[in-house]
Amino acid sequence: MMSTTFNQTELAKYDGQNGQPAYVAVDGVVYDVTGVAAWAGGKHHGNLAGHELTAVIDQRSPHGRRVLDKLTVVGKYVAD
To answer: What CATH number is given to the structural domain containing 68?
Structure first.
């Protein structure tokens, strides 16, 4: 059950830098990408953890949303 809610300011804290976990939001759901090798250092193909990436994954990602099923959901995202 998702109980943690993130807005843009809260999500930005989880950028994968300085020991912080790396989280990304897609379509209102926040995912933990911390343990994903491709997201090392909070960066993946020019995208940064701590951001809402729905448009990126839908329009520019070669793998699309299918990779999201492998990730841990940590909360929900609500725009400010």
So the answer is: 3.10.120.10
Q: Which domain holds residue 13?
A: 5-77
Contact 77, 30 (CB under 8 A): yes
Q: pLDDT tens digits, the chain, 80 residues: what are they? A: 457 999 999 999 999 999 999 999 999 999 999 999 999 999 999 999 999 999 999 999 999 999 999 999 999 999 87
2-to-21, 25, 42 alpha-carbon distances in Å: 17, 13, 23
Q: pTM to 2 decimals?
A: 0.93
